[in-house]
Amino acid sequence: MRAAARPDPDALAATLSILRARFGERLAEGEAICRQHGNQTSEVPNEPPDAVLFPETTEEVREAVRVCADHRIPIIPYGVGSSFEGHVNAPFGGLSVDTSRMKRIVAVNVDDLDCTVEAGVTRSELNNHLRDTGLFFPIDPGADASLGGMAATRASGTNAVRYGTMRENALALTIVLPDGSISRTGTRARKSSAGYDLTRLIVGSEGTLAVITEITLRLAGIPEAVSGGVCPFPSIEAACEAVIATIQTGVPVARIELMDERQVQACNSYSRLDLPETPLLFLEFHGSPAGVDEQSTRFNDIAADFGGGPFAWATHAEDRSRLWRARHDAYWAARALRPAAKGISTDVCVPISQLAPCIAETKADIAQTGLIAPIVGHVGDGNFHVMPLVDFSEPLEVERGLAFVGRLVRRALAHGGTSTGEHGIGQSNRQYLALEFDEPARKLMRAIKGVVDPDNIMNPGKVHPEA
User: Fold this and answer.
1) Do 299 and 211 share a structural domain?
2) Is residue 439 in a domain?
3) 3-state class (DSSP) for residue 430
4) Which of 41, 211, 265, 331 is packed most tightly, with the most Cβ within 10 A?
């Protein structure tokens, strides 16, 4: 795999000239729009591309990739820019390929519970389209992300404990490889033993192997009944123990989300709620009316064993939506605690049995460090986020915040976990890859990248520390 570098100026000029002639106004080169296509959502510095292309078909993506491949120009796939880890940055310049105009819902197969969509369709757009079919797409990362971006980063979110992640819900992809060839990685069949699992190789590859242009997705039936609400607990440990007991006893909870007391304070202020400012679990159950009632009763009993309650059940859809909107706005609510600071996004995930000790140790670390660092998490699958709020104009504070993140990752790994449960490696987590994978595993990753993308033009500077 070739080392990444900024393109030769003459090669870049030739590439942009060809693209300008072919795509006209759909090739944008202004400074403002290029900066909009660098990182916008976290502490990772913005690194804009040299130009932004807005293709409308897979064939147009192929045309652009072939031109870039001929001149060794970096290609940065772009959805809506909602990822946290610098995935859309262009550290070596190049072309941002913005799929936001690729909005076709190609097919919905109601009887088979699947659909095929172009990469620029967002999850809310798909669900709006599906509303009258009795089906929905359950993966909900919070942001109204593009489905291509969700596949590229192996996203999950609040429903993962019941419905899985993008890894389980992507059946097949249409991709454009770095040489400009188009490939289909699978079929609509629910299982296959044919060859290597190329779909799951590309899902989570973060744009470093190909540009995803279409996705075939599993769908789920809209549940007959939904019940949800919030349950306070006397401590983080008690809330986590209740989560572990709920999962281990087989309660089929659809969502079970944790907020610590600092995050609840932030959400009350930002979303104008009056939730009790103690550790809270947000819950939702899906099923038949009788099944939902049974699940709620079983959880109620489990929570009481750990000192949880009283419940505040949201029986109306608009009340549940308001609660989950507050949960999805947790990032912005936390940022509002220190408006002049930036949040360092973290994303560790541990085995469910290790959740309580890992979060308890993390809370002690936060207290000792003196950081403002709210905790929120998809704790039904052991995934939680801590967001230290750091003033990046203060070098010592930055050093303290980054040191805390390093300890958090090492703590999660020591508990048998991972540095990132759903955000991906991108730029900001590359340093932790060597802590999580041994050298033979990293060598295999580099070998795959080198074979697929020998010139290292596909989203260079991401995932691989050496890239």
Assistant:
1) no
2) no
3) helix
4) 211
